[in-house]
Write a structure and sequence with these properties.
Oligomer: single chain
CATH superfamily of the largest domain: Glycogen Phosphorylase B
Largest sheet: 7 strands, parallel
Number of strands: 13
Order of helices and strands: EHEEHEHEHEHEEHEHEHEHEHEHHH
Shape: globular
Number of domains: 2
Number of helices: 13
CATH topology of the largest domain: Rossmann fold
Structural class: alpha/beta
Strand content: 15-25%
Helix content: 25-40%
CATH class of the largest domain: Alpha Beta
Distance between the termini: 18 Å
Radius of gyration: 20 Å
Length: about 350
C-alpha cells in the first residue's frame, strides 16, 4: 500500500519552528515508512522529511501576511498533488478540506484529517463528500461532527526526538502562537501572581501584532517575563525540558494541542485551562492539571509534585508515534476496502 500525504504548501515539512500540522505530517510519514508502508509527501520544496517528496512550489510562505489569494496557491498545489498521487497511490490523505472537490473525479480512496476547530459551514461542506473518510484529532472534535465515515485518532510523536529531563530549572514555559485565544497574557498573569519567571516562545503573526504590543511587550523585563523568540526542536527540548511546568491557558476549544504532548514527552507537566481536547490530553496528577481559573493555575504552579518519568511514561502509553501510525494503517485499510465495495 502506498500513501500520499498532502500538506498545504506554505510551511516546510517538518516545520523549522511554527507548524503543528506540518510536524504531524512529518512524523506520520516517517512513522509509516519505518512500519513498512510506502509514503510520498506533497509539500513545498524546502521540506526535509525523510520520505519521498514532491512539490509544485519551491519556497515556504509564512506568515501569509495580507495575501488574500493564498487559497488559490493552496488549491493549485492540492489539486495537482491529488491528480499526481492518483496515478500511483492507494490512499490520498489530505490535511485540509480544500482538496475535497477534486476527490469526486478520482478513483482513489481519500482520507481528510480535520486539524482545525469545528465550523458548521465547513461541516456542511464536508458532508457533500460522504465517500471521504474524515479523521478527528480528539473525541471532543468527534462529538461536534456528523459526516458518515468519521474516526478519531489522537496525535502521536516520535519520542526519540524528545529528551526526558528530570532536573528542572526555576521557571515556567509557554510555547504557541502569541494570540489572545492562546492566553499568552494569562501566562504572564500566572508569573506575576507566583513570582516564578516565565519564558515565552512563539510566533507573532501580523494579525496579532497589536495584541503583542499592548498585552505582552510591556511586561517583558528579561527577568520575570522573557520572550525568547521562535523555537525549533532543539529549542523546544531545552525550553520545555528544563521548565517546572508548561502553561497552556487557552481561551478557546483547542482541537488537540500537540505542544502539550511535546512538553510531557520531556517530563514536564502541563498546567492548562479547560477547553476542547485538554481534558483528554492532560490527566490530573499524572501529566499535569486541568484548571478552572487563573488562580488555580497559579496555585498548581507553586505546588508541583509529579515525577518526570511518570509523565514520560504516560506519553509513551497514550501518544506514541507507533500508536498513531497503527491506527492510521487501520483506517487506510478500511478506506480502501470501502472503496472496493463501492467500485
Amino acid at each position: 500500500m502506498k500513501i500520499a500525504l498532502v500538506a498545504p504548501p506554505f510551511i516546510a515539512v517538518p516545520p523549522e519552528n511554527y507548524g503543528g500540522t506540518e510536524l504531524f505530517v512529518a512524523q506520520l510519514a516517517e512513522g509509516l515508512k519505518a512500519a513498512g508502508t510506502e509514503v510520498v509527501v506533497y509539500a513545498n520544496g524546502q521540506s526535509t522529511v525523510n520520505a519521498e517528496r514532491r512539490w509544485r512550489y519551491e519556497r515556504s510562505q509564512w506568515p501569509i501576511k495580507s495575501d488574500q489569494h493564498a487559497w488559490l496557491k493552496e488549491l493549485d498545489h492540492t489539486s495537482w498533488a491529488m491528480h499526481d498521487a492518483a496515478r500511483s497511490c492507494d490512499i490520498i490523505h489530505l490535511q485540509a478540506p480544500l482538496g475535497l472537490p477534486t476527490s469526486r473525479f478520482l478513483p482513489t480512496a481519500v482520507i481528510c484529517t480535520l486539524h482545525g476547530p469545528h465550523n458548521s459551514r465547513l461541516t456542511e461542506f464536508c458532508g457533500r463528500y460522504p465517500d471521504v473518510h474524515y479523521v478527528c484529532i480528539s473525541e471532543f472534535q468527534y462529538r461536534q461532527e456528523s459526516m458518515p465515515h468519521l474516526h478519531t485518532v489522537h496525535h502521536g510523536i516520535d519520542l526519540s526526538k524528545y529528551q526526558l529531563r528530570e532536573k528542572k530549572g526555576q521557571y515556567l514555559s509557554f510555547i504557541g502562537r502569541i494570540a489572545p485565544i492562546k492566553g499568552t497574557h494569562i501566562a504572564i498573569d500566572v508569573a506575576k501572581r507566583t513570582g516564578i519567571p516565565l519564558k515565552i516562545a512563539g510566533d507573532i503573526q501580523p494579525m496579532y501584532r497589536d495584541y503583542f504590543e499592548a498585552k505582552i511587550k510591556p511586561h517583558l523585563d528579561g527577568r520575570l517575563v522573557e520572550y525568547v523568540g521562535l523555537a525549533d526542536l532543539a529549542a523546544k527540548n531545552e525550553l520545555l525540558g528544563n521548565s517546572l511546568a508548561m502553561l497552556f491557558p487557552i481561551l478557546w476549544n483547542e482541537p488537540f494541542g500537540l505542544v502539550m504532548v511535546e512538553a510531557m514527552a520531556c517530563g514536564t507537566p502541563v498546567l492548562a485551562l479547560r477547553g476542547g481536547s485538554v481534558p483528554e490530553i492532560v490527566r490530573d496528577g499524572i501529566s499535569g492539571y486541568v484548571c478552572r481559573s487563573v488562580s488555580q493555575l497559579a496555585k498548581r504552579a507553586m505546588d508541583l509534585h509529579i515525577e518526570a518519568d511518570m509523565i514520560r511514561q504516560y506519553v509513551e502509553e497514550n501518544f506514541s508515534l507507533q500508536r498513531m501510525v497503527a491506527r492510521y494503517q487501520e483506517l487506510y485499510k478500511d478506506a480502501t476496502d470501502t472503496q472496493r465495495k463501492v467500485a
